[in-house]
Every structure is written in structure tokens, then in C-alpha cells.
Amino acid sequence: MILTRSLPHNQSFKQYLHIFLLIALCLRHTLSTIKRRLPTIEIPATISLLVLVPSRKKPGKPFCSLASIGFSACGRERKDIINDRKQIIPELGNVELRNGHPTPGNCSEVDNLCHLDEFVSLVRAGSEECKRIVAVTSTLNLMKGNAENNCPACWKLIKLVRQKHKFLHTFVIAPGESSAGI
Ligand SMILES: [Zn+2]
Asked: Strand pairing partners for 54?
């Protein structure tokens, strides 16, 4: 939440991706050190980016884009975190648990989707003459740095929330660290 509130507004997708990859890299270095000293500490498995931008940017017209960075639930508060997410995203109640996959609501993608309704309203209101919005998500394994695919529960959840926002187009990308020029 603090991280999301600290992100700048109205950046391009490329700039948000750059910020995301740099934050993920810094966290990985810091958390590796902490993990060596406190091996039993639980660290979120994944980190995700959600960027909402209008589908077109007209020169001279108002433009609004927003981004969020989220983490998978972990530790003693895992259940409470998932319950909080279910309160914010009622569609999570329609996503079934599948064997061998995380509990619906556990993933870092869901942390970001908690901001979706607010972001959609703000981006639509702030982007004159642009009815369609593009939502791009990207997920990395926090400690290894490699891109992670959405689990079946997250795919289902994205499908459900898209039904609520008909003008929303969603994309999932899998960047490498070279995307940020690191
Ligand atoms: Zn998931």
C-alpha cells in the first residue's frame, strides 16, 4: 500500500515498468541479506505490477495513468490478508481453489487488483476523450527475478473483473531485467 501510494502518477507504461524492475532488484538484494541472517523469516514469493493507461494519448489533452505494486501474502497474517482482499474484491468468492495452486486471493496480482476500481475511475475521469483503458500486469518471482505466469485463479479473477469494466483491455507481460536496462 505504501509503495503504491509512493509511485508517481501519469507516467508511461515503460517508465512504470522501469521503476518496478528497479524496486524488485533492490528488494531482492536487501531481502537476500535479511534471509541469510534470519533464515526462517517468510518473504513474499512474488511481486507484481499493475499499470492502467488510457488506450490513446491525444496531444494537449488531459492524461492520467496510475500504477500499483503488490506482493503475495505470507507469514502469520496470510489468512487475514486474503480475507481483506476478499472484502475488497467480491468476485474472489467466485474463484475456486485448485489442487497444487495458491489459495485464491493469495497472489501478488490480487493485491494490485484491490486498486482496480479506484484506478479505473481516476484514469477515465482524468483522460479526456478516451473511453478505453489498458491494464497491463507483470509478475516476478521476488527472490529469483524471473517472470511468473498468472495462476488459474488469477486468470479467472481477471476475467470476472473485466466483465464489470467492459471498456478495459488487459494484457500480461513477462519482462526480463534487460527491459529496465539493468
Ligand atoms: Zn494467482
From this structure: 133
Question: What's the 103 CA to ligand 1 centre distance in angstroms?
Answer: 8
* Separation of alpha carbons 143 and 145, rounded Å: 6
Separation of CA 108 and ligand 1 centre (Å)? 7
φ, ψ for residue 80, nearest 5 deg = -65, -40
Say which residues have a Cβ less than 8 Å from residue 79's Cβ, sequence separation at least 6.
Answer: none
The domain segmentation of the chain, as residue ranges, is 2-180
What pLDDT sits at residue 55? 87
- Contact of 86 with 105, CB cutoff 8 Å: yes
Per-block mean pLDDT, blocks of 10 residues, the chain (182 long):
78 94 95 92 95 85 91 94 96 87 92 95 84 92 93 93 91 67 36
Number of helices (H) and strands (E) in the chain: give both, helices first: 6, 4
Q: Are 92 and 85 in contact (CB under 8 A)?
A: yes
Q: DSSP assignment, residue 98?
A: -
- Per the structure block, which three cell numbers stand in for 55? 488506450
Q: How far is the CA of 6 from the centre of ligand 1 (A)?
A: 24
CA 145 to CA 175: how far, in whole Å? Answer: 10
133-141 and 168-172 strand pairing: parallel
